[in-house]
């Protein structure tokens, strides 16, 4: 691929050292600079198909744990059959996973300049592979509902922890390659949701076909349960995929383009004579004093506040209803099995999300304005009311005809919901770290990866708040205690 103008962060060319270097006061870590004097036009670093492909794979790995766990909800619910934990599992899982993701991502963001992104990426991927392998083994072992519930929640929390450090390192490197790499990474995140949802639909189809043959699934032996069989397959494949991603990451770090663009984030550890651990960046702009880095993070967060609020609210709305509320919507067509209906619902959202992220690769549909993106994000609130008009299951209410009495309209709304989720969130993340399209960064290359990681942190914050909001929405729907019903 030819050089792309989207590759916004480039190698810093060698230049003579100024005879009178400017000294920066410790009380003014980010003094104003004359961009015309300090910054020289730089040759763009090509973001070729290999780099885009690797970032696509890394994007898949970033959200693979969440998507595999959330899409495996039918399997988890089948293991919690006849347990009071069954009805509240989705909400408790969402809030525990996203809360852990939020707090660990806060630490990962604050310490992002103090570690090597390549080593952090590989270390996180290996641990995620181990955790996915444990979930694979869980399909072969019979556990009572209580311990199984605790195991899944704990596994999810630990995956969220390692996923936080993986997210930080991947988005930081992608942002330095520019919007092209960021878009590829975001498309990978959506693609993995489609993949695991497709597996779940096939599993549901197998289950329904067995029932139609007159052999109830509940009566089958555990080793023939199609939900467990499907869970074994895609948790196993997830483990293998994470290991393959380790190889892809290793390949990326061996490319000259990586060292030219992201070398500033790598850290060399050198042990001095006194035993102290000295660390320095490979090129200028790498490691800096923690206090200065904290000041920079706060400054960039304030600068990009509109983008950050916009991306956070996208996921507040999404997690408030998906999947705790949307999964409780039943088909209006009696010939459509509820299990198959719910599985198709996950796939429909995933397809919409993928299309939304993919179309961001076309310049004609890109929106860079922070205020327009915030308006689009806030407008997604309408979807909450649309879903509540569908055939939502209300345990304490008498059956009644919903305002939206069509499965086709429900899936159409759900697809638009997923598409807007992927489209608006991708634009927010791409814009926030773009030197070309975000004038708030004022051309400061050292702020690019900070802007990207802070935006990602706000995204996770939105997921956490949305998970909490799901309890409120569920309470309004069922007129009950959402923590026990």
TrEMBL record:
Location in or out of the cell: Membrane
InterPro entries referenced in this protein's UniProt entry, alphabetically: Eqnu_transpt, MFS_trans_sf
Any single Gene Ontology cellular-component annotation: fungal-type vacuole membrane
Domain of life: Eukaryota
GO molecular function: nicotinamide riboside transmembrane transporter activity; nucleobase transmembrane transporter activity
Chief subcellular location: membrane
Keywords tagged on the record: Membrane, Transmembrane, Transmembrane helix, Transport
Record's keyword annotation contains Glycoprotein: no
Transmembrane segment boundaries: 56-77, 89-110, 122-143, 149-178, 190-210, 230-252, 305-327, 339-360, 372-389, 409-429, 450-473
Pfam family, one: Nucleoside_tran
Record bears the keyword Transport: yes
Membrane topology: Multi-pass membrane protein
PANTHER family recorded: EQUILIBRATIVE NUCLEOSIDE TRANSPORTER (PTHR10332), EQUILIBRATIVE NUCLEOSIDE TRANSPORTER 1, ISOFORM A (PTHR10332:SF88)
Entry similarity comment: Belongs to the SLC29A/ENT transporter (TC 2.A.57) family.
Name of the protein this chain belongs to: Nucleoside transporter
Organism listed in the record: Moniliophthora roreri (strain MCA 2997) (Cocoa frosty pod rot fungus)
């Amino acid at each position: 691929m030819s050089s792309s103008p989207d590759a916004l962060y480039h190698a810093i060319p060698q230049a003579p050292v100024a005879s009178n270097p400017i000294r920066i006061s410790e009380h003014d870590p980010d003094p104003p600079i004359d961009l015309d004097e300090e910054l020289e036009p730089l040759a763009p670093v090509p973001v070729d198909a290999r780099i885009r492909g690797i970032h696509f794979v890394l994007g898949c790995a970033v959200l693979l744990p969440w998507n595999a766990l959330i899409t495996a909800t039918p399997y988890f619910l089948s293991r919690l059959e006849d347990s009071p934990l069954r009805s509240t599992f989705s909400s408790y899982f969402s809030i525990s996973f996203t809360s852990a993701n939020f707090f660990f991502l806060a630490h990962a963001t604050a310490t992002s300049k103090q570690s090597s992104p390549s080593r952090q990426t590989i270390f996180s991927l290996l641990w995620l592979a181990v955790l996915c392998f444990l979930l694979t083994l869980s399909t072969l072992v019979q556990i009572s509902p209580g311990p199984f519930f605790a195991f899944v929640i704990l596994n999810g929390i630990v995956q969220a922890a390692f996923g936080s450090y993986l997210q930080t390192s991947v988005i930081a490197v992608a942002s330095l390659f520019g919007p092209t790499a960021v878009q590829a990474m975001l498309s990978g995140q959506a693609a993995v949701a489609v993949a695991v949802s497709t597996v779940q639909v096939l599993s549901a189809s197998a289950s329904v076909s067995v029932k139609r043959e007159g052999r109830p699934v509940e009566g089958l032996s555990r080793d023939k349960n199609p939900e467990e069989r499907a869970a074994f397959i895609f948790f196993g494949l997830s483990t293998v995929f994470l290991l393959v991603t380790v190889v892809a990451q290793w390949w990326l770090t061996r490319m000259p383009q990586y060292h030219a663009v992201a070398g500033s984030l790598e850290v060399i550890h050198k042990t001095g004579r006194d035993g102290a651990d000295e660390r320095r960046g490979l090129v200028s702009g790498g490691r800096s004093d923690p206090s200065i880095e904290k000041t920079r993070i706060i400054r960039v967060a304030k600068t990009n506040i509109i983008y950050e609020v916009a991306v956070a609210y996208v996921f507040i709305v999404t997690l408030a209803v998906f999947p705790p509320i949307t999964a409780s919507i039943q088909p209006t067509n009696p010939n459509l099995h509820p299990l198959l209906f719910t599985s198709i619902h996950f796939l429909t959202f995933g397809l919409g999300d993928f299309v939304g992220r993919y179309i961001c690769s076309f310049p004609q549909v890109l929106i860079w304005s922070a205020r327009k993106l915030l308006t689009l994000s806030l407008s997604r609130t309408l979807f909450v009311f649309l879903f509540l008009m569908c055939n939502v299951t209300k345990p304490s209410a008498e059956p009644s005809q919903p305002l939206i009495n069509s499965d086709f309209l429900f899936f159409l709304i759900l697809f638009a919901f997923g598409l807007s989720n992927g489209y608006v969130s991708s634009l927010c993340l791409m814009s926030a770290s773009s030197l070309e399209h975000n004038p708030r960064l004022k051309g400061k290359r050292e702020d690019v990866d900070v802007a990207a990681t802070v935006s990602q942190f706000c995204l996770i914050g939105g997921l956490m708040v949305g998970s909490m909001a799901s309890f409120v929405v569920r309470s309004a729907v069922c007129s009950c205690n959402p923590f026990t019903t």
